[in-house]
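Study this:
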Amino acid sequence: MLRASLISLIALGVVAQEPPKAPAAPAPAAQVPAPAQPAAPKPEDVLLAKVGGEPITEADFQAAFRLLGQQEQMQILMVQGGKEEFVKRMAESKLLAVKAQRMGLDKTPAFQRALDRTKDDLLAREFLAKEGEALQKRLMVSEDDVKAFYEKNKDRFKQPELATVRHILVSVKREGEEKGLSDAEAKAKVAKIQAELKKGAKFEALAKKYSDDPGSKENGGLYEDADPSTWVPEFGAAARTQPIGKVGAPVKTQYGYHLMKVESRKAARQVPFEEAKQVAEQGAQRERQAVVWNELMTDLRKEIPFELTKPSPTDKPESKPAPKAEPKAEPKAEPKAEPKAEPKADAKGGAQ
């Protein structure tokens, strides 16, 4: 969580922001002294809402605003009424909090532990924000850093063989299913589609009309620049070997019968640096963030005692010996009593 704070507060430059101010009006031509303007009220003096007698001020809004992600901050700043809606949510949260407080829920041990945990997280955020400028400099990556990351991770930038394929799926009813075509019925439907293709019908139009594949049906059966190894084996093999531009023989898979038309294939290749630069830069930045975080933690551990402990597998809570049962006195036999039947154990032997 705190590592994410480093990225959001430092790498993304998320700091307390205020709505953009309108540009200052040009000074009047005549040098007439402007009347003195009253001092702007302090944020803590600007009342935005009041719940249960407790105020929500502009200072409260700004404090909550700082904890948001960059995208949420931009929505509040740019969307009309965004701030008002956020203040409403703050007031509703306060409403719940006041009710919980009146119920005494803030006095429970669980709440106190959660409060301490939240306090730690907020203080950590404050520290990261205060050190933000120095950390930002350490997070920057150069062109050489990006190239080095690319060279070190060339296997990540290998593009597999790709194929662009159109297909028409005629699904077959599976065992246990009530609806759908039998194998013979599916073959007959495939033959009908093949006959329409021979008469000059467009493959794309027939895919929209007949295909049972919802993922490509409306797109004329198209899968563009896909890795054949991600498809079922029979379909992938046909995508690699079938003549380009021709509709091949029906291909049987677990889904049914496919009429396939391979439109193009691209050989596997090493993606050049210029083409992979953007992805490589993101990888270099993530790598640098991890390094900076680990260095920060190492420096702090030198200053502040730090220890992670794991309970030993043999460390178990001591169990108190069960109290010994007092011996029961033997009951006196009743001369005329019938012998009682032994109680029968239930199916589980009494265990729940």
In short: The mean pLDDT is 84. The longest strand covers residues 256-266. Strands lie at 47-51, 54-57, 158-159, 162-171, 222-226, 251-253, 256-266, 269-270. The CA atoms of residues 16 and 66 lie 5 Å apart.
